[in-house]
């Protein structure tokens, strides 16, 4: 019992209980911890504690060579490793002034969008599980397995893809990509449809998500929100549109925005983004097919990567938001400093604001809707 | 008008620019440590700059870069770094720097703002009053480098546990640690 | 000697043991402690494609009191170590620890200041799964190994004697 | 003497029967979930994984028993007992068939046809809440206490609409005995509908089934053990067979509730439009009526599973809001309408 709490909401009755949630808690993804001060079930104050998965990635990066660090970036956001790889590669390419061939850029786009679908699927699925709806999770995960199969058959790993190289990609898309993709596409759509049927207009689901942990656009920008969580607040910001990279300016797609920035909007934005990703992949593959078969996949890159001294920051729109890499080089073969700007790190720090005055059940819903990935949160 | 000139115009008259560099299109400006908040406000509120979004805050340890005298001794690995720091002659430049990544949402321009922090005065003004987004990154910079942020509401370790003795991202801290043990015994 | 009686096929004792072992091996309720990348693969193993529930591992028990198998999927950092140890200590016997993935087995690529270099420094590990991350199939195989291990255990013969048994 | 013997045999039979259904029910739940979720489900223990519940039981029995050091031992031990004993006893007044004539002796297929059957069920049913709150309190764990509190509030709140909707049934049939109500549901209603309770009390049925789901702590009302919020709720600190009693008691509760639903609203052992009892011999009819009743119960048991794997979970305040702001006024309205109707027709 906390004898001297600071009442911040209208539920003051005198006695408050401190409830420690996590790190080993089913809703806390294994590594997050929130210490809450509750009045009954109402949260007076939440204090997230992170660092339970701090593996020293940035320090490790300073001790590895530029190429060796690519596999480490897989382990940042393990739900979608490919945007992490590409983001890092783009940062080093920017530092060295390398122009990546168009064909490689298209392959990157296709793979990144597949990863985006996979990431959103698992996020929506887990959101359902945390709200007690188990079944959509299973529907989504089956399709996710198929995406994993594409990854695996493309570069040999399901999860930690180590996709691409500095200066391009290492391999072309296999010949039967189109076949596989045409087979996968309706399945992804169908799983999404079924999920929507089970959830979107379900009264209980709406009650549980609409208006929960709503956030205004100004607050969101002030807290450094990016990605679906920012778009759910009504800010139309997407690095793919605003700072186009990898030929994203050539594709026609929409950026969904929400209104209230609540759990429902985040869920809905993610659902729509999956559909848009499918559109992007279709267009990218069309462009890819127009390329000559022997178009280069790699720019000319020296064998040992030793970028000139300098420091650059390069970001892309990962499924969670702006994922940036700051790379500082001293001219040697090891990066001098690698700073990762993980999207959910900025989002999760607003967590006390998001859940203040809500119930414990809403804390769970809010957390899963933010899609906090401990790997990139703690690094 | 390109970004560099605009920043120069905005901060120059107030003599807020210590140095300015550009690397592959990324403009970075170094401002005096004492007047960080002032510079940030100018950058945010000047209409033709409008850097209203704080993307990230982090520290950099320049310990290795600041050791140019040792370079002749280990000539075999002194490759490529000659462009960086032949200028240092007298006292070493401040060891740490804190980098702020700013973003203008309207024009999608990015700017790096730096302050240099020397080892004997590790205090920097906190930006939490301007951007809430600085809350955790500043805590992390404190955790990893020991830079203290004045005015931060809750400056304690973020990633390492509370009684961790060192600041792990400093360059003189070994990658595999110094054998810090986590106290495993718990009371029931 | 008592052991001879058991060796000679004490019917009731051995059949009872068989029954208990059967129950235990067919109902390994996991405590899915997924901290990192391996947690995602563990999730896949629990979900529709691979379905660990086939082996009875259907009810993920997040309360350590109710779990039989602790699946440690992912890195344990120094900060997490006391939590992990506590969870292990709270589990009721018989308990089994599956260390899934390179990080849990040995620290993996993260040979850094903050990572625990293998959870076997804290708790006894029964089954190691290599891989970074291991495929879900590997986790299923670990479950089969758990079943094999359980079949060979002697739940009612006192430990003092069960060590003396031959041919087990 | 004979009566005593018959009573004992009936008690033992019904106990075994309910136990068996509860065991099979756990299997149905797992396989049903698997079916809904596109996966095979448990299939290693016995044919189709049918022995899975037995394996679970054996494992729970042989697991180390832990009494947490800081728990309140008496309450901790009492909790599961208080939860499972009422669950087992509540079925005593629920019929499971019409009657059977053996050796010239008429045996009604019900443990005891007490004339206050409803009150017994309500009274015994509300005992279960003690098991939960004592277990939650005795564990000295914040999650357990939260689960216990949630459960207490929920069960007490939903007992009111449950009781009120039952009251309307009493108005209609003029009796508290479940057997008499069952008997009264023979024939047709308004000439074309089966004379079942659901057609006389459609609103009452909906209220009853919603309240019953809440009483049984099933999705969407499974807040007391909401996995993602409060770990395992009131049984967080329970392992071994004490946990088994909680889990098992829940399934026994489901059987009882399904039995009550069938007996009150779904014509008990009657088939619509046809009175099989008139054509079959007394022994055969006894067996057939039991089968009909069992089939109807199975449907409602399956409904529990079906709903569980389809719907998300309510939030605590929403559960309370639904109970007090929607169900209770509706139940009162239902009573009013029923009373009015009876007043006008009689």
Strand and helix layout:
The complex is a heterotetramer of chains A (379), B (188), C (168) and D (346).
Chain B: H1 3-11, E1 19-23, E2 26-30, H2 36-45, E3 53-61, E4 96-104, E5 109-117, E6 123-125, H3 135-145, E7 148-150
Parallel strand pairs in B: 2-5, 6-7
Antiparallel strand pairs in B: 1-2, 3-4, 4-5
Chain C: H1 2-7, H2 11-26, E1 30-34, H3 37-46, E2 69-73, H4 81-90, E3 96-100, H5 102-106, E4 127-129, H6 136-151, H7 159-162
Parallel strand pairs in C: 1-2, 2-3, 3-4
Chain D: H1 2-36, H2 52-61, H3 73-90, E1 99-102, E2 105-108, H4 117-138, H5 142-173, H6 178-183, E3 188-189, E4 193-194, H7 197-200, H8 202-215, H9 227-230, H10 240-265, H11 282-308, H12 316-345
Antiparallel strand pairs in D: 1-2, 3-4
Helix pairs in contact in D: 1-10, 1-11, 2-10, 3-4, 3-10, 4-5, 5-8, 5-12, 8-12, 10-11
Summarize this structure briefly:
By secondary structure, chain C is α/β, with parallel strands linked by helices. Chain C is built from 7 helices and 4 strands.
Structure report:
In chain A, strands 1-2-3 form a 3-stranded antiparallel β-sheet. By secondary structure, chain A is of the alpha+beta class. Chain A has helices at residues 57-62, 69-74, 81-96, 102-130, 135-155, 177-199, 203-209, 217-222, 227-232, 239-242, 263-290, 343-348, 351-355, 360-370, 374-378, and strands at residues 17-21, 33-39, 42-49, 310-318, 321-329, 335-341. Chain A has a domain at 64-83 and 98-301 and 342-378: Cytochrome-c3 Hydrogenase, chain B (Orthogonal Bundle), CATH 1.10.645.10. Chain A has 15 helices and 6 strands. The model of chain A is unreliable at 1-13 (pLDDT under 50). Chain B is an alpha/beta fold. Chain B is built from 3 helices and 7 strands. In chain B, the strands form 2 sheets. A 5-stranded mixed β-sheet of chain B has the order 1-2-5-4-3. In chain B, strands 6-7 form a two-stranded parallel ribbon. The model of chain B is unreliable at 71-86 (pLDDT under 50). Chain C has 7 helices and 4 strands. In chain C, strand 1 (30-34), helix 3 (37-46) and strand 2 (69-73) form a beta-alpha-beta unit. Chain C is globular, with a radius of gyration of 17 Å. The mean pLDDT of chain C is 82. Chain D has 346 residues and is mostly helical. Chain D has one domain. Helix content of chain D is 66%, strand content 3%. Chain D is built from 12 helices and 4 strands. Chain D has a two-stranded antiparallel ribbon. The longest helix of chain D has 35 residues, at 2-36. Chains A and B meet through helix 1, helix 8, strand 4, strand 5 and strand 6 of A and strand 3 and helix 3 of B.
């Amino acid at each position: 019992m906390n004898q001297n709490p600071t009442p911040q909401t209208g539920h003051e009755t005198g006695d408050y209980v401190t409830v420690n949630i996590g790190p080993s808690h089913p809703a806390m993804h294994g590594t997050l911890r929130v210490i809450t001060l509750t009045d009954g079930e109402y949260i007076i104050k939440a204090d997230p504690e992170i660092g339970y998965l701090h593996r020293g990635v940035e320090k490790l990066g300073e001790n590895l060579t530029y190429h060796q660090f690519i596999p480490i970036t897989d382990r940042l956001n393990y739900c979608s490793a490919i945007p992490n790889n590409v983001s890092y590669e783009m940062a080093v390419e920017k530092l060295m002034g390398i122009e990546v061939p168009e064909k490689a850029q298209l392959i990157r786009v296709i793979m990144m969008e597949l990863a985006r679908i996979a990431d959103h699927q698992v996020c929506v699925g887990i959101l359902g599980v945390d709200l007690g709806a188990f079944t959509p999770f299973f529907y989504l995960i089956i399709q996710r397995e198929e995406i994993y199969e594409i990854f695996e058959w493309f570069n040999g790993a399901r999860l930690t893809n180590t996709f691409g190289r500095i200066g391009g990609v290492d391999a072309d898309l296999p010949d039967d990509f189109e076949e596989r993709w045409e087979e996968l596409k309706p399945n992804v759509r169908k799983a999404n449809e079924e999920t929507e049927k089970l959830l979107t207009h379900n009264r209980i689901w709406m009650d549980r998500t609409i208006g929960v942990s709503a956030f205004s656009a100004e607050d969101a920008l002030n807290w450094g929100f990016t990605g679906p969580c920012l778009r759910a607040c009504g800010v139309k910001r997407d690095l793919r549109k605003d700072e186009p990279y990898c030929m994203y300016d050539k594709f026609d797609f929409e950026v969904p925005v929400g209104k209230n920035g609540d759990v429902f909007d985040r869920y809905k934005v993610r659902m729509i983004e999956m559909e848009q990703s499918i559109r992007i992949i279709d267009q990218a593959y069309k462009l890819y097919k127009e390329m000559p078969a022997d178009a280069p996949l790699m720019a000319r890159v020296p064998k040992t990567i030793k970028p000139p001294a300098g420091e650059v920051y390069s970001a892309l729109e990962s499924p969670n938001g702006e994922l940036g890499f700051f790379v500082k080089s001293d001219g040697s073969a090891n990066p001098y400093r690698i700073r990762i700007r993980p999207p959910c790190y900025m989002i999760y720090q607003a967590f006390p604001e998001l859940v203040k005055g809500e119930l414990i059940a809403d804390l769970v819903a809010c957390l899963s809707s933010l899609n906090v990935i401990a790997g990139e949160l703690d690094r | 008008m390109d970004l560099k000139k605009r920043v120069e115009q905005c901060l120059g008259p107030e003599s807020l620019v210590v140095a300015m560099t550009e690397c592959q299109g990324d403009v970075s400006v170094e401002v005096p440590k004492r007047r960080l908040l002032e510079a940030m406000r100018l950058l945010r509120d000047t209409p033709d700059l409008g850097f209203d979004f704080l993307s990230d805050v982090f520290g950099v340890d320049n310990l290795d870069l600041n050791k140019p005298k040792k370079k002749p001794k280990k000539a075999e690995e002194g490759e490529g770094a000659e462009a960086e720091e032949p200028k240092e002659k007298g006292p070493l430049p401040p060891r740490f720097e804190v980098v702020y990544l700013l973003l203008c949402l309207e024009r999608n321009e990015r700017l790096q703002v730096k302050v240099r922090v020397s080892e004997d005065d590790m205090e920097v003004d906190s930006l939490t009053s301007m951007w809430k987004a600085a809350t955790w990154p500043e805590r992390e910079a404190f955790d990893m480098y020991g830079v203290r942020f004045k005015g931060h509401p809750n400056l304690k370790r973020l990633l390492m546990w509370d009684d961790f003795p060192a600041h792990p991202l400093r360059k003189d801290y070994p990658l595999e640690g110094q054998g810090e043990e986590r106290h495993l015994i718990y009371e029931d | 000697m008592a052991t001879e009686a058991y060796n000679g096929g004490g019917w009731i004792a051995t059949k009872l043991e068989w029954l208990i072992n059967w129950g235990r091996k067919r109902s390994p309720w996991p405590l899915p402690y997924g901290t990192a990348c391996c947690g995602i693969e563990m999730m896949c193993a629990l979900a529709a494609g691979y379905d660990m529930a086939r082996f009875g591992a259907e009810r993920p028990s997040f309360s350590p009191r109710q779990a039989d198998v602790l699946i440690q999927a992912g890195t344990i950092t120094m900060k997490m170590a006391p939590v992990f140890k506590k969870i292990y200590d709270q589990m009721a016997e018989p308990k089994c620890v599956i260390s899934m993935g390179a990080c849990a087995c040995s620290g993996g690529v993260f040979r850094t200041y903050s990572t625990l270099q293998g959870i076997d420094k804290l708790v006894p590990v029964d089954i190691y799964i290599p891989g970074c991350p291991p495929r879900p199939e590997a986790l299923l195989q670990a479950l089969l190994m758990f079943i094999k291990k359980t079949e060979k255990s002697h739940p009612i013969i006192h430990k003092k004697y069960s060590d003396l048994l031959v041919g087990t | 003497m004979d009566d005593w013997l018959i009573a004992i045999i009936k008690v033992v039979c019904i106990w075994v029967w309910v136990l068996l259904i509860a065991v099979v029910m756990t299997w149905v739940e797992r396989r049903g979930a698997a079916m809904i979720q596109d996966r095979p489900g448990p299939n290693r223990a016995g044919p189709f994984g049918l022995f899975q519940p037995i394996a679970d039981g054996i494992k729970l029995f042989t697991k180390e028993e832990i009494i947490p050091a800081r728990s309140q031992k008496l309450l901790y031990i009492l909790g599961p007992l208080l939860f499972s004993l009422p669950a087992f006893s509540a079925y005593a007044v629920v019929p499971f068939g019409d009657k059977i004539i053996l050796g010239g002796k008429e045996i009604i297929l019900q443990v005891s046809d007490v004339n206050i059957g409803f009150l017994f069920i309500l009274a015994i049913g509300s005992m279960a809440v003690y098991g939960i709150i004592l277990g939650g309190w005795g564990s000295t764990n914040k999650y357990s206490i939260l689960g216990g509190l949630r459960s207490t509030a929920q069960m007490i709140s939903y007992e009111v609409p449950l009781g009120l909707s039952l009251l309307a049934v009493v108005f209609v049939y003029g009796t508290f005995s479940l057997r008499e109500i069952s008997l009264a549901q023979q024939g047709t209603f308004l000439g074309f509908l089966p004379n079942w309770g659901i057609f006389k009390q459609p609103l009452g049925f909906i209220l009853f089934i919603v309240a019953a789901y809440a009483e049984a702590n099933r999705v969407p009302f499974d807040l007391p053990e909401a996995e993602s919020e409060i770990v395992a709720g009131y049984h967080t600190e329970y392992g071994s067979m004490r946990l088994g009693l909680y889990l098992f008691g829940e399934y026994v509760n489901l059987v009882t509730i399904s039995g009550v639903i069938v007996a009150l609203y779904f014509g008990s052992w009657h088939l619509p439009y046809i009175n099989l009892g008139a054509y079959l011999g007394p022994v055969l009819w006894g067996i057939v009526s039991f089968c009909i009743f069992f089939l109807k119960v199975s449907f409602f048991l399956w409904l529990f599973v079906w709903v569980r794997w389809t719907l998300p979970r309510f939030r605590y305040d929403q559960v309370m809001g639904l109970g007090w702001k929607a169900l209770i006024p509706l139940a009162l309205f239902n009573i009013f309408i029923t009373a009015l109707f009876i007043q006008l027709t009689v």
